[in-house]
Amino acid sequence: xxxxxxLFQGTAFSSxxxxxxxxxxxxxxxxxxxxMIEKVVAPEDAEYHPLLEAYQGKSxxxxxxxxxxxxxxxxxLHVHAPxxxxxxxxxxxxLYDWLNTYTFPLESKFADLDFAEKVYDDLVSTLxxxxxxxxxxxxxxxxxxxxxLAELCAKKGQRGLVGKVVMDDPAQNPEYYRDADxxxxxxxxxxxxxxxxxxxxxxxxxxxxxxxxRFIPSCTNEALEGLGKLAAKYDAYVxxxxxxxxxxxxxxxxxxxxxxxxxxxxFGLLREKSxxxxxxxxxxxxxxxxxxxGTAIAHCPVSNAYFANSVIPVAHFHxxxxxxxxxxxxxxxxSPSLFDNVRQxxxxxxxxxxxxDPSLPAHERGVPDSRITIDEAFYLATAGxxxxxxxPIGRLQQNYAWDVQIIDTKLPSAKLPIFDxxxxxxxxxxxxxxxxxxxxxxxxWVQGMKVHSR
Length: 454
Ligand code: GUN
Ligand code: FE
Known about the structure:
The protein is of the alpha/beta class. It contains 16 helices and 16 strands. Helix 4 (143-156) runs parallel beside helix 5 and helix 8 (260-266) runs parallel beside helix 9 (284-293). The chain binds guanine and fe (iii) ion. Pfam families: Amidohydro_1. Pathway: Purine metabolism; guanine degradation; xanthine from guanine: step 1/1. One of its GO terms (biological process) is guanine catabolic process.
């Protein structure tokens, strides 16, 4: 019997810190039966060659070929699974109109399990093919269809955190799409938590239930309070939207005379295992509250450009010690790819950057200390997501899950422009981050299991 379940040899990129990547050139990665990285061995280590010799030629030895590189699997902190069916639709209209005209009618169709299965099956496979190994999902108000999404994650090997959406306020939600009443919303949520916990016992990679008030405008005070209690009772993950758009932010100020952060906190919804999407209009006390409660931010740079006309000051929030990861926000963001969101996170941050020269007008447009580098954006999509979820994922390090994407830069059909045989590895990393397409993602592994190849 082999000591390890799998042994990989290749060059990998992982985050050393939020600012810097670590380049692991020609390392060995030994994966144990639980799908965790048990050992990371450098070429100069004494055990490198004996280990290599013991596994070479075996079916559980994987040597990356020239031009292939390992990256941690991406962690998407904000996906509306049903909205995959309308990706790219009507992003030119305001959030409120988009929700009522397109999104709620679409989501109401997920009462039909056959329709739900078609969309969810395709989405989970698409996200895996884009290198996304862990996803924090909003499903719909329907308990059964939400459970079906969790089952599809389980079956396809993706690490899924899934929420049955709560929107119970009859004054705010259309009759054709809302929880029948507040009590049922809470009962359904509790039954959903228990069902997902049962399902989780059957998989290795982890499937988790998430307490999911859609956003404050869609929920009654009773529902928000009940959901806070359920989160505490089950020590469950919590997700919602927080201070996303001028309209949503203003609605909460009118209703509670507070910002979203403090209102959510009053209901017990800001916890160590909470992830709040967008957070475009957090002020300093809001941000301090996030840091104190351990609440993380799902930064959705593509979606924020469309619905919020806004850029969050990632560097500033990082300096306060807030955990931040990336979200596609399908379909407020049109793309299923976190590569696209990594790119947009950098581009957006450059637009918000303070002008270097205080005598130029650009100085007044910016926010100091906003700019992030490609290394930092990569951190958001990987280690930052793992920290936001308090899970050992997103890094190629000992005691982390073997969640990886194998990138091939030399495919004839999708070759990256690398012409110098001795190009420095950070340069190659940058080319991968800016230019890789799904075609370049040759294999995806979650918890030591191959879940996608092309
Ligand atoms: N706020 C409430 N619901 C939604 C949604 O589905 N998408 C986005 N972007 N914002 C929301
Ligand atoms: Fe969203």
